[in-house]
Amino acid sequence: MGVRVVCCLLFAGLLTACGGGDAPADKGKADAKPILLKFSHVVAENTPKGKMAIRFKELVEKRLAGRVKVEVYPNSQLFGDNNVLEAMLLGDVQLAAPALSKFENYSPALQLFDLPFLFRDMQAVDRFQGGPAGRALLGSLSSKGLVGLGYLHNGMKQLSANQPLRVPSDANGKKFRIMTSDVLAAQFEAVDAVPLKKPFSEVFTLLQTKAIDGQENTWSNIYSKKFYEVQEYITESNHGVLDYLVVSSAAFWNGLPDDVRDGLAGALDEAIAYGNQVALDKAVEDKKAIADSGRSTIIELTDDERAQWVEAMKPVWMQFEKIVGKDNIEAAVAANKR
């Protein structure tokens, strides 16, 4: 079911039986209710995505004042990433930025971004996403009634656990929380670990109660959600990328007046660029904050140790090659070489 945007025109100067003047021709426009845009996400306001959402709201309210009202709901206040897309198709939310892992049922090819050790760094991710293959993937959701509006960074993922993780065998038998992703499940199964698909909002409690042994996440999420306070070790693995896809429903987005849609798209592009810079800065700042806290020991892998992780996990590429596309994998690998 799509979203219908209804603009109600209210006229004050209705004719009465006693007579009266005509309502001004532009009165309806002046009294039109603003379009409500609810932006739902699952992380804290001081994260790259949280800051991006706030910047987007500020830009829209400045440029489209009186025409669009933006409400931001962080920390899973409105929906979690596991149900926000269904809610969007029902018209209960108009904008979201779930992790790319959440789209496997909507566009299997987007599972490309979960492949371990595919991208060397965030610069390689940028090159791929800005190239033909990355731009084409934005449009891969159209058959499901969704519109991909842009990629938003969080950063490279690290591994945390209650015991040191230096080589793949250290993960044997340990339970790791993952997002709902078959690729991420295969990634941990490749090192004989146990992947458990759990909501992001439950991770801290699961770690605190030792219901799970570890998790994977970026420095900003590990810091903002205080995972480092309940994990003794963090391995700087940079084994994967955690990015989001800013998305809306096709019915809502395509049903907007052209000038409003253009204004929202421009504000979104600026907000995403801002959020991506925040992500780069916070990766450095939050890693330092965690190190300074003394709550977690950060493990830096040697070249040999890292090579063991790559060797153990890289077969996952072949496992999902037909799903994500060999051409997409080759384009991602090429992005590492520039």
Provide structural commentary.
The protein has 338 residues and is an alpha/beta fold. The chain has one domain (27-335): D-Maltodextrin-Binding Protein, domain 2 (3-Layer(aba) Sandwich), CATH 3.40.190. Helices cover 40% and strands 17% of the residues. It has 14 helices and eleven strands. The strands form three sheets. A six-stranded mixed β-sheet has the order 7-6-8-5-9-11. It has a three-stranded parallel β-sheet with strand order 2-1-3. Helix 6 links the parallel strand 6 and strand 7. It is globular. The two termini are 44 Å apart. The model is unreliable at 1-28 (pLDDT under 50).
Largest sheet: 6 strands, mixed
By DSSP, the count of extended strands is: 11
* Overall number of domains: 1
CATH architecture: 3-Layer(aba) Sandwich
What is the helix/strand order?
A: HEHEHEHHEEEHEHEHEEHHEHHHH
Largest sheet strand order: 7-6-8-5-9-11
**Count of runs of 4 or more consecutive helical residues:** 14
Quote the CATH topology: D-Maltodextrin-Binding Protein, domain 2
CATH class: Alpha Beta
Radius of gyration: 23 Å
Shape: globular
Structural class: alpha/beta
The CATH superfamily label reads Bacterial extracellular solute-binding protein, family 7
Which stretches of 5+ consecutive residues score pLDDT under 50? 1-28
Distance between the termini: 44 Å
